[in-house]
Amino acid sequence: MARGEVEGGVEIEEIEAGCVHYKRNCLLVAPCCDKVYPCRVCHDEEEEHTLDRKTVKKVVCGQCKTRSDISKDCECGAVFGEAYFCSVCRLYDNEDKKQFHCDGCSICRVGGQDNFEHCFTCEMCMPKTSTHKCIEKSSRNNCPVCFEPIHTSRTATHIPPCGHLIHVPCYGDMLKSGLYSCPTCGRAMQDMSDAWTHVDREVAETPMPAEYANLYREVLCKDCSKASKTLFHIVGMKCGDCGSYNTSVEGPFQRKSGEEFVSLTDAELQRLYTVPLPENPHEPEEEEEGGDGDGGEERDGDREGSPHSSDWEDILDDDGEEEDDQDAISLD
Hints:
The protein has about 325 residues and is α+β, with helices and mostly antiparallel strands. The chain folds into 3 domains: about 5-95, no CATH class; about 100-190, Herpes Virus-1 (2-Layer Sandwich); about 195-280 and about 295-310, Rubrerythrin, domain 2 (Single Sheet). About 10% of the residues lie in helices and about 20% in strands. The chain is built from 5 helices and 18 strands. The protein has helices spanning about 40-45, 170-175, 195-205, 265-275, 295-300, and strands at about 5, 25-30, 35, 60, 65-70, 85, 90-95, 100, 105-110, 115-120, 125, 155-160, 165, 215-220, 225-230, 245-250, 255, 260-265. The strands form 6 sheets. Strands 1-3-2-4-5 form a 5-stranded antiparallel sheet, covered by helices on one side. Strands 14, 15, 16, 17 and 18 form a 5-stranded antiparallel sheet that branches. Strand 14 and strand 15 (about 225-230) form a beta hairpin. The longest helix has 12 residues, at about 195-205. It is elongated, with a radius of gyration of 28 Å.
């Protein structure tokens, strides 16, 4: 990418119109520094300040190098943006990406205006083909993975069931790492039915010691937000309402007596801690040295009840990949 100053420095003739971000036939004159750049992204990558696209007043023709006011074409006949031009965003593009300007978003987006509807609660264009959970000004938050902006990002955005937006590449990277829960609220970001069936088999194939029979823990499900009491198991504890293993432990060990649940005494807990547990196939191996040496605390089971997430890398489907995400939202 070449750049240059309008007066002095690099000659305008040496600056090529178009760049890796946009194919176009003009250059933008940045009013903030009076320099010429192929696009606002090129400017922001080179300078220590950002360019407000809507403040651009002048462009330089890529064909005759004439400087002129914002318009769709030049007096020499060159069309600055052969496929798209937005006078509000100063956006020129030779490639048809089904661009459209959204007054609600105050920016241009891609994908076809007929396919999106602006949500004034989330403050973002949402696909008409799917429903979403509205969260006040959710698009104004940063991506919870890379911490880059959502609303003004050129990176496509994925919409999980919980409504907490996340960049498509970040979502894909999480799935590749076996991370299925929303970084913001912990709810599963896709259908986990196959994974939970797999955990059911693991539970059935991993018998617990007799001392743990009829022992329950209260868990809070991160998927349905309901609390329930479930049989304690080292592999994972299943939500009694929706069947998810995406749970966290909320209460002490209890034994069921008839219809009542009775908490274990301190003496019973101490005896319980001496009972070896079967190996948890989802628990990462610990270093032999450097631990606290207190086996009782580990066996207490106070850690979260959901299985170790990295075990689901080969079970989760990859619908979150960028090229497959049909509900992604993208800025131009």
